[in-house]
Design goal:
259 residues, alpha+beta, eight-stranded antiparallel barrel, globular
Length: 259
């Protein structure tokens, strides 16, 4: 039977230097502590159409956008628990809904090779089926992997902070059994921090971050990976490659890819 989960919250992103991370951490420990998993390798397959319709639309910064991904934690084999996630963002609020099967079954389900039993079906699988039907030709498009340290609120359990490092992407060998190695998305000494909250976070923490020069950035791991991918592709671009050139100058969710 599938396990269904739903999340609704704001997700605010920041790009930190190693020094900013080390100065901020003592302040953060007043409100949150590292969860029981410690550092975890997170592996994702992002699904998209052959012309990357989902991420191209997302980079235009619309009021509403959605993504479909398959996620595992740590080393992956066919029986590893995997999470199929629909991630939607509307007016700054992130809605994430997911179901869980083993990795092999998740891959086969998303490829349309198997049908779910009545016990496995749910509102979330109905939404996944509708999304796959709507985006014709949707298939595994890119692997995104990273090491994550997650912190949970000491008093407010809805307050969460994550730090991602060693973020990589690849479009070859799109199989999580092969690991999550790839090309680097952020610098080796940088941390991508996300603060996940239902509303506002502590004013003292906000003031500390301001003093340290830590401010929100617009960044998407998949968006940045995609922009790096098309920039590489542009090196071999011909006159017929009309879809690549406009995005080389695009300013949107992935604009910090050029920093």
């Amino acid at each position: 039977m599938s396990k269904e989960q739903t999340f609704e919250r704001k997700e605010i992103k920041y790009l930190l230097s190693d020094q900013q991370y080390r100065l901020l951490l003592p302040e953060l420990t007043k409100y949150a502590e590292v969860d029981k998993y410690g550092k975890t390798r997170i592996n994702n397959i992002y699904y998209d159409t052959p012309n990357f319709q989902l991420i191209r639309a997302s980079l235009e910064k619309p009021v509403y956008k959605e993504k479909l991904r398959l996620r595992t934690y740590g080393d992956t084999d066919g029986q590893t628990p995997a999470f199929i996630e629909i991630k939607k963002k509307y007016k700054g609020i992130v809605y994430k809904r997911r179901v869980s099967f083993n990795y092999d079954k998740s891959i086969d389900y998303l490829a349309g090779n198997i049908k779910l039993s009545e016990l496995e079906k749910s509102q979330v699988t109905d939404e996944i089926d509708e999304l796959v039907d709507f985006y014709q030709g949707i298939r595994p498009a890119m692997v995104i992997g990273y090491d994550r340290i997650a912190m949970a609120g000491t008093y407010d359990k809805d307050f969460r902070v994550t730090f991602d490092t060693n973020i990589t992407w690849r479009v070859e060998d799109i199989d999580l059994k092969s690991g999550s190695q790839g090309k680097r998305i952020i610098e080796k000494n940088q941390y991508l921090m996300e603060i996940k909250i239902p509303d506002a976070f502590p004013i003292e923490l906000s003031q500390c971050m301001s003093r340290l020069g830590i401010f929100p950035v617009s960044i998407s791991k998949y968006g940045r990976g995609y922009i790096q991918y098309i920039m590489e592709a542009s090196q071999n671009m011909t006159q017929s490659d009309v879809m690549v050139e406009p995005l080389l100058h695009h300013k949107g969710e992935g604009e910090v890819a050029y920093a």
